[in-house]
């Protein structure tokens, strides 16, 4: 086909369209974007070294467009069709998250780009959860929910037709891509009208708020869209000034010289008016705002230490005390690029400098990169964590649910059931980071 648009181009267009739609739907999201842009600009102006580092790692350009969103679906067919839709945008399912350990009746994956160039261009990610109807313990209600879900189609007929066309042609031209983005967006739009009457909504809501959110609407509305900041502590402290009320504490690790994995904060879900089938009206709380700061991806060894320290630190009530406590506990985690590398705690991307390139023949497979780094022949940049944290995700669900989520455990992880619904296995995030490091070493002649 002539003039096929790349998946990266389509993802870029889609993420922009999604951001514009969400800004219209939730004006506070626009305020959040302005706040994050202000803070990022100030950080870059005051920190020439960070500015240079980000520019060298090709991270600067993506920062302004970088977002993640989250959606929840009700059936295997919906999940598998989303998988097709996101594949057209160059997004693959990465990782399996079992939220039932936090008392939330869903399991999830993150659709995101996986290769270096695609991530550099626009690392748009969608955290996607599938409802586990089997966790509704009232059989009549379970059956009713399944019936309601079976009746809806969250994709427009034109969107389905375009996905088929994409498969036949193996791509889209610019016009088709534009139409596809437009149609795909419909799936994630907010609907004020529920598909059920008030009594059904309330029965499902009593079972779990998330069940009502998934089952009662005609689409799978995007429930938040998160920009990336370079200084989350600063954003948290400025939120009130911008008229946004943040949740009490920043989740994840403490502030560090070398930022680790992911830190997140959010504002609470909005109470929005809804019209139920019949005449009744009421409200629904599902959509909220969130900001995140991303750091280096950890190796399994680093992740094990991280998990241990985070659970040792526990949860705090006010942010200041909690952050100070975290700082103390995380003293056990090395905080320099050299130590993280030397102890194999984090992943790095190696590059030859111009002088390294001139001495290529002196670098042999199996060599220790450290002497070359000291000589200025090779640089090692921390690989950005591109995924989500199970603990953090659960925390976000909880704050979103207004703190009354059930805490009982729903039994074993059901990864294979999730993959069967998805129609394919999910990718292993550790493998992706390891592969990125290995590829970069090979390019330098270190492997
Ligand atoms: C998803 C929550 C997970 C994150 O950033 O950890 C998430 C949801 O509430 O549907 O987006
Ligand atoms: Ni999120």
Description:
- By secondary structure, the protein is α+β, with helices and mostly antiparallel strands.
- It has a single domain (7-295, 388-413), classed as 2,3-Dihydroxybiphenyl 1,2-Dioxygenase, domain 1 (Roll).
- 47% of the residues lie in helices and 16% in strands.
- The protein has 20 helices and 12 strands.
- A 5-stranded mixed β-sheet has the order 2-3-4-1-6.
- The site of 2-oxoadipic acid has 13 residues, from strand 1, strand 4 and helix 18.
- Keywords: Dioxygenase, Iron, Oxidoreductase.
- This is 2-oxoadipate dioxygenase/decarboxylase.
- It comes from Kluyvera georgiana ATCC 51603.
- Belongs to the 2-oxoadipate dioxygenase/decarboxylase family.
Q: What is the strand and helix layout of this fold?
A:
Blueprint lengths: L6 H19 L1 H20 L1 H9 L3 H4 L3 E7 L2 H13 L3 E7 L7 E7 L3 H6 L3 E7 L7 H13 L5 H13 L4 H13 L6 E5 H10 L1 H7 L8 E4 L4 H7 L23 E6 L3 E7 L3 E5 L3 E6 L5 H14 L5 H11 L7 H6 L5 E5 L1 H5 L10 H7 L2 E5 L7 H11 L14 H8 L6 H16 L3
Parallel strand pairs: 1-4, 5-8
Antiparallel strand pairs: 1-6, 2-3, 3-4, 7-10, 8-9, 11-12
Helix pairs in contact: 1-2, 1-9, 5-19, 8-9, 10-11, 13-14
Bound molecules: 2-oxoadipic acid and nickel (II) ion.
